[in-house]
Structures are given as structure tokens and as C-alpha cells.
Amino acid sequence: MPVCGRVVMYAVDKVNRHDEEPIAPGSEEGEPPLLTKEEAIAEVKRWFERYRIDQNQIFARIGELVVRYGDLIPHLEQETDEGRLLLRAISRGRVVRQQRGFPGLERDQK
Hints:
- The protein contains 5 helices and 2 strands, in the order ααββααα.
- It has about 110 residues and is mainly alpha-helical.
- It has one domain (about 5-110).
- Strands 1-2 form a two-stranded antiparallel sheet.
- A hairpin with a 2-residue loop joins β1 and β2.
- The radius of gyration is 14 Å and the shape is globular.
- The two termini are about 25 Å apart.
């Protein structure tokens, strides 16, 4: 499974400071800058091209909710609750990749 599929689960985990003190959700320090809806959709399209992902493959499962890769763009376009969560997760994932210096990131963002 590509790294991008784990982004949602990472985003819903609590964010901690280096001293392990939790950061309050919604605080400026704890929230990465959000991508625009168009940037997030472009990111998902890059995943499809780069990883050749089957759009029926499950992206995330949280309780009864199942989100498949093919659902990502419609959720983002329609700005559903899931789409807003995905936007935050994709934004967070980009920040994490930048911080960790994943190869090819600069090329992917062009």
C-alpha cells in the first residue's frame, strides 16, 4: 500500500510536540497550511498516475465508513465532511513528506 493511503489515519491521530505534550486540535501550531481543493485533487491524480492505484482499492476504513480511492476526488469536489477530512490529511501528508525529505516530492508538486 502506498504511503499516501496512510495519511488519513495519521491525520486523525493526536499531534504531539517534541516534549510529548498534546497540541490542541485547531491551534495554529498543530495545523499545517491547508492545500486548496484543486491542489488536493491534483495530488490524488498524481497518486493514481504514480502508483497505478485501482480506484476500487480501499483508501481508509473508519468504523462503518469505507472510503475507496475512487471516492477521493468526488468527496473533495463536493466538500463533504469526508472531503474536508481528506483535505486536512492530504495537506498534513505533504508537510510530513517535506519534513522527512521524501525523494521526488519536488517533482510531484510541479
